[in-house]
Design brief:
The chain is mainly β. The chain contains three helices and 21 strands. The protein has helices at 109-119, 157-169, 248-254; strands spanning 2-9, 12-13, 18-20, 22-26, 29-30, 36-39, 57-61, 67-72, 82-85, 92-97, 100-106, 124-127, 152-156, 184-188, 211-216, 219-228, 235-236, 241-242, 263-272, 274-277, 281-287.
Amino acid sequence: MAAVVELITYPVKGCAGTSVDSTHLTPAGLAHDRSFMVVSVDGVYRTQRRDPRLALVRPTVSVDGSRLTLAAAEPEGGQGVLHLAVTTSAPRRDVDLFGATYQGIDQGDDAAAWLTDFLGTPSRLVRVPPEHDRKTDGLTPGTSGYADSSAVHLLSRVSLAHLHTRMAERGAPPLAMDRFRPNIVIDSHPEGAHGEQGQDWAAEPHAEDRIRRATIGAAELGYTKLAVRCAVTLVDQEAGARGGPEPLRTLAGYRRFSAGGVVFGAKFAVVRPGKLSVGDEVAVDEWGDAVT
């Protein structure tokens, strides 16, 4: 069978992720995932595409979501840790995410000053309002916080291993999984993942592309779309700086999407919320054809 080997939530969009052993999968994704977003003073979203130093911001959020901590990890040191009491009652403001307008709750001047100092550009921190009702597109309808699109990004270790094989043929070294910022990482269980036609599907690169419905722990996921990769994959997550042309150069050679761009991993909507844990079996309830 296939199993979950890592769960990662990203409390602040564009910042470092936090690995957890178990969490609750909400309708909008893993608990607290992309609940916060760094924006310009005009409310326009910031991501690693233009601000790669966001990767060096290590946010942690309390289980109940009432406390947020921002810490900086840098080779040369960094700045102090900021502890915030999260507010959900402050006035709402318009924020821009890929040209669409949503609402955000500003988290105050201390957070703004900390981020402005660290990123070197005027910034504010906003939180998704409790009444946030964003609809996401794709094959299965869903919702999400400030994620690029769908609530959950799933990727298998065998897909990454296959990419590494392709990169090695070009003389390129392997890359860490965090370049792709997945929420759920799966791998083949030692007992096997025999399903469709008796094959060990979890040992097949990009099998996640064909999953249409899956049960993991107490939750159920529905496929929305393939994950089209962008310049964020070029950012070294430990250095907070853009590296070379990989992995996009290699992916362009074998993972071009007919609708444009290169794809790696799959995105899902939450059909049924529930608890997720590392070690949970990934039971595929429905398969589809790979989208090309």
